[in-house]
Amino acid sequence: MNTQAMPSAYAELHKRHQRLHHLTHLKSIAEWDQSANMPAKGNEARSLALAEMGGLLHQLATEPALKALLDAAEQEPLDADQRANLREMRRVWRASNALPQELVEAKSLAGSRCEHAWRGQRQANDWTGYLPNLREVIKLAREEANYLADSTGLSRYDALMDQYEPGMRSAEVDRVFGDLRSWLPALIQNVRAKQATETVREPVGSFSKTAQRALGLDAMRLMGFDFEAGRLDESAHPFCGGVPEDVRMTTRYREDNFLPSLMGTIHETGHGRYEQNRPREWLGQPLSEARSMGLHESQSLSFEMQLGSHPAFAKLLSPLLNQHFGAQPAFEAGNVHGLLTRVNPGLIRVDADEVTYPAHIILRFEIERALIEGQIECDDIPALWDAKMMELLGLDTRGNFKDGCMQDVHWGCGLVGYFPCYTLGAMYAAQWFAAMRRAMPDLDAQIGAGNLAPVFDWLKQNIWLQASRYETPELVRRASGEPLNPAHFKAHLQSRYLG
Amino acid sequence: MNTQAMPSAYAELHKRHQRLHHLTHLKSIAEWDQSANMPAKGNEARSLALAEMGGLLHQLATEPALKALLDAAEQEPLDADQRANLREMRRVWRASNALPQELVEAKSLAGSRCEHAWRGQRQANDWTGYLPNLREVIKLAREEANYLADSTGLSRYDALMDQYEPGMRSAEVDRVFGDLRSWLPALIQNVRAKQATETVREPVGSFSKTAQRALGLDAMRLMGFDFEAGRLDESAHPFCGGVPEDVRMTTRYREDNFLPSLMGTIHETGHGRYEQNRPREWLGQPLSEARSMGLHESQSLSFEMQLGSHPAFAKLLSPLLNQHFGAQPAFEAGNVHGLLTRVNPGLIRVDADEVTYPAHIILRFEIERALIEGQIECDDIPALWDAKMMELLGLDTRGNFKDGCMQDVHWGCGLVGYFPCYTLGAMYAAQWFAAMRRAMPDLDAQIGAGNLAPVFDWLKQNIWLQASRYETPELVRRASGEPLNPAHFKAHLQSRYLG
């Protein structure tokens, strides 16, 4: 983009964001490498290098000149996209300036310490050991919430959530999760009753890493991943990192079960394609950023759940499984679909199926909001957890901290207000597919014929290329013709699991 | 290191170099990734990110405050290591400030363009197409040499060479290469006559990449590489990159011949161990840097040639070859040694054996010096090349630019004054082993018994841990008791090839 044609304050801001983009590129690749490649003794130097870069980026994002530039650019003649970009520049600037450096550092330190100790404490089911560390992190998260609430005028919990899901408010989450809460437990019971009468054949393994990797690469090709602009590697915790021009996805392999890696890879491919298809001419500018964590999750879940667990998709997977592992009866398409849609209430969120997953999120949302708003203390978490698990999924977790309130790392490392994004993502994904079906009534037949392009084209035009051009409510309305509507998620689950 | 105990100007310099070290870390890892992992479409964004970081590092290294800090630190009470570090800080500062930014950028651009076109032109044997690009690069290299000569008081060629081999002067190169030139052609003839009477069995392949990689990793273990502080990957052009705390070596595989990858891997392991064993408590400071390109090459050649082609080393390789490729007669130890020491004058430098290699370097040194000093022009290169190839190796290269003066990328991308380092490295390596044998008369027996530790310990104490504490002549004297002495290289070749 030619910055000489831009008004001067805006052009200067544009240049500075481009610079941040270039430097962030190196940080992102080094972070991916840290998880995917780095040997043990490299960690100290890498951590110091990343911290140095983090400090430098924060310094560049908070330079005093920026405020005047942002104000001056408001007065300049900008087109609609430039104005949207300026709105996002201000959001980035506000977020960078909202917190005192000491609080950011103290929270990062307390979070690292708590997470480090948590690894052992979780294994040992040691809630008592964990509690003081968690209290310290939550104390700092409450301070963070106070600062952010002051700077945004939002409630404390909303101010935290706004970092991950800009514009989302807990009143809205209450509305959609309240709806969900009203029908989910009964739906789970009905699905369980129906599935009790069905049999699904277990695949017979083991499944070599080499074959699983080849299968995963084929699945990525099927899902349209651009291998000239990204890679698949291995890491302990799968993620999608790198940069939009060079997306670095990771997975991990279990030789006794290929499904977690396969479906995890399809999930990350959704994140990956969103990144690969952010508007190219805007890369480096805030307008090009993915809209939110919930929107990002709506892409990975569009891939993993809406498409990946679609009955017709099993027909595409079946020949790939026969090819990579050798044919066996469990790989028959109907059985593959059965494997991918079994519903089993369980203790662990990350292992949960599509139907019971939202229960795990509702529980966490209700607890973390009360925690941040000061209605409960960390000590109250286990009892609340037990009560809600019994109510939502009928499971007894008393005394089982390991698989209960200590299972996730989020709170321990200071990430509060993030959990709703997972289920908001699932709802958005269902809403996208409902909109697609209205626009393309033969969509399911197309998927059945192995033609996934209409799905990808719709997501590309309506989500990927829109990036952060619009705030979320407008993006959602433009894409689907209505605000966030949990009825689509309900209809999706009913149709797939009880239809 | 506690900077509070340091005098203040020195402490400030120390802190700034530590910062450069952290930021350079990210650049080094991204550069390694660019060669080892990056897909095609990632290149533009990566290049921009690296250029941004290059500019930032240059800006930090030339901040106006540095001059006063360096001068003030000279007056502070420093211990011997701190004073050596200050000397190296000044060298870095002088190098960073010697050239106008526009020249650096123009040369980088012209070099990139010339190199890019060279890839096709070399294939097409197109000297006429290449010549105008080369003229432009050499014009800029001459300007660079003028600036560096002005700032250092050296001759133009010496000023260029000083960037890679600090302290080395062409008078010294003349002395040692002149000696070499006097006996090398006759030695080559004698070795060729001797080897004409010997038969060496060719290994029967192909050799799978998987088996070659496993063999390479075993060889690296044998050579003491620390896999907790480094990795082996693949790239089109093998190199040793990364950071001292996390060394990233690469190799490439040919399925018809395992020797280039195996010996290349052993070569890079020499570079890698030097990097892994630079003084830990000084990392980030100029004192900890590898002393020079020639010294670096002396380590890779100590590994590849002095050790790797040692008759006793073949006995260590032989069982590894049998293990990874299956036993065959060519893997018998004596035959392996024969394979590793065959002498064949050829056109291509990078394919040359240990005996004919220096002829390729002498030729390049003589031409590039005359070019920089203005005694010849680019147009004169082919005729000079042909004459010297005939004189030194008895080979006719007339009209064959592809395998003649267009074979290397160095001049085309503006690297002039570097070539001598390769043969200086070979001479230093021979000198180290002569010193080791004086200190440990049973060295060859130890190597024969598979005990390589005495070699590694000697290199670690005398070279690796010394880093840039001393200037090269003093380092060489301290390590080997005498200045650079080509007699050791001659004795080594005579003993190995005619003994």
UniProtKB/TrEMBL annotation, chains A, B:
Its cofactor is Zn(2+). This is Metal-dependent carboxypeptidase. The active site is at E268 (proton donor/acceptor). Belongs to the peptidase M32 family. The keyword Hydrolase applies. Keywords: Carboxypeptidase, Hydrolase, Metal-binding, Metalloprotease, Protease, Zinc. PROSITE patterns: PEPTIDASE_M32 (PS52034). The keyword Hydrolase applies. Zn(2+) binds at H267, H271, E297. Transmembrane segments: none annotated. It is an enzyme of class 3 (hydrolase). One of its GO terms (biological process) is proteolysis. It comes from Roseateles oligotrophus. InterPro entries: Peptidase_M32_Taq.
